[in-house]
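Just curious: can you write whichever protein you like plus the matching structure tokens?

***
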Amino acid sequence: MKTVYKLVKEISSLHPIPPVANQILSLANDPDSAISDLVELISFDPAITANLLKVCNSAYLGMAMPVTSIQQAVALLGMKRIIELVLMNCLSPNLLKIQKGYQLEKGELWKNSVATALVSKSIAQTREIDDVFFIYTAALLKDIGKVVIDSLVGKSCQKIRRLVMKKGYTFDEAEKKIIGIDHAALGGIIADLWKFDSRLTFIIKNHHMTQEGARLDQDTSIVYLADIVSMMVGSGIGVDGLAYKFYEEIFTEMSVTEFELQNLLVEYHTHYKKADTLLTIQ
């Protein structure tokens, strides 16, 4: 328990999440919100405004004309796309660092998180789910616990891998056995301390479906599916690789066809490669 207590204390070293992130999430899920509300909210934060305009004028979006204001950005890209980009900007800084314990180079965890979030959004939209931005945000932050637990995973890597290779443990089960907590559970604690919505915290905490009840939750299942897609592609995954349980019944319950799966694999790869163009301005 001393190790877990120490990890929780280290959460304070993470890049703080600006209060506007929660406000934007609330706005995104308010059917009565207007574009003017979003523009006003973003405009109150000079740093977010500046970064959003940089992204809008980057090769990532390839806009035909320069974007010089938030109003213009919203007019050209639409409210939903702007919310997605702002959330990415607010929530991504912690994911850009090297994760030596997980054998991830600088930016790899971030690119994986962005691509997985966009795939999650596609799965949710295909199924006409309303809370797309909660799912997108949960997928973006699903591995935030890795940022804090990384050094201990590095020190215990041989013990963890021995349990995975010799004893048949999943990687998260081995983390919990050796360290006392796994990265998903720690991610849930981080989300809770950041005062995120309880549903968002639940998805982050259970994105590997460790709780049986999570397998009955559609939003969590979507993030799980997107995570499996990322593992199948193999880009942006580290030492933990495919060392997680595969729940085929979730694919069945979510009616994922072979055609859809192939499209999601291509989509993930495309998003991951495009994210390279954003690294220079993050």
In short: The first helix runs from residue 2 to 10. The mean pLDDT is 91.
